[in-house]
Amino acid sequence: MYGVVTRNAEEVRWPEFDRGFYEVKDVTGRSAEPITDGVNMVSCFGDNAAADADPSLVPVDDMGRPATRDRTYFDWDYVCPSREDYREGLFEVIDDCVEANEDVRLDDIGFPRAEYCRCGVCEQRFEESSHDDRFAWRADVITEFVEEAVERIPGRVYMTLYPDPYPGHLYERAGLDLEALEEHVDEFVVPLYDTAYETTYWLETIARGFDSALETPFSVELYAVNVDVDNLIHALEVAEEYGESVLFGYEASNARAALRRQQADEREGETYGEPGSESRSQSGE
């Protein structure tokens, strides 16, 4: 099964794709109206616009360094998952999504890195909690958010995971307790992005790691922008050995070309009976 991840609503309807994911809110803070014929995606704690508008929302480490896109390790600005007002805003976006389509994909969930967050809100919440371990407290914060979000989603719940299946890494990095989250999520999505896919051994290694780590089905998302079609085909052949489906991100036309090429190659390789069998039967042999 193949799907597309896109900001262009019409692309979810292309017949080459069995499923479509449409970005309603992305990490820039850009928003769009939800659609009825695709799974609407919501970037939860990645939000450049919110961080620019209110820098106090941004997570900080114990030295006060913010998790913003102008610093090493961060491709976008983060919002602290403890902020109730911001979370309520996310729930309103999710409510809008389910009015259009009951299935929703939750994107960019978690704390930015292991050393976050040490803002005043998090410090107070941790002190008031029953936890002695900060990692356990962070995991509860994230699981609680997902639980509340899922209560609002009557259909299938998808959730994106950072592509690190090594035991304990997602828990320490982002506060993701996979065992707890699996009770609420119907399917995970693992983006395994490369700009070329010249080699794919790493893709197979990571996908297999998630296959071992998860009981819940997961799909692999590939990056399709300006990737050589033959390389993209090879990547999808590796990914589909493990994923519930293979999704293509942000260039539907290139993904469509890869799928058409793959199907054409498969047709060329088909055989119908033994060579010469038809002529032998016609001659009475």
CATH superfamily label: Glycosidases
Structural class: alpha/beta
Helix-residue proportion: 25-40%
Helix tally equals: 10
Structure description:
By secondary structure, this protein is α/β, with parallel strands linked by helices. It has one domain: Glycosidases (TIM Barrel), CATH 3.20.20. 38% of the residues lie in helices and 14% in strands. Strands 1-2-3-4-5-6-7-8 form an eight-stranded parallel barrel.
Keywords, separated by commas or semicolons:
eight-stranded parallel β-barrel; 14% strand; 10 helices; 8 strands; 285 residues; alpha/beta; single chain; disordered C terminus; TIM Barrel
Brief synopsis:
With 285 residues, the chain is of the alpha/beta class. It contains ten helices and eight strands. Residues 275-285 have low confidence and may be disordered.
Secondary structure layout plus pairing:
Layout: E1 2-6, E2 19-25, E3 39-43, H1 48-53, H2 84-100, E4 104-107, H3 120-128, H4 134-151, E5 157-160, H5 169-174, H6 178-181, E6 187-191, H7 201-213, E7 218-223, H8 229-239, E8 246-249, H9 252-268, H10 277-282
Parallel strand pairs: 1-2, 1-8, 2-3, 3-4, 4-5, 5-6, 6-7, 7-8
Region (Disordered): 259-285
Protein name: Glycoside hydrolase domain protein
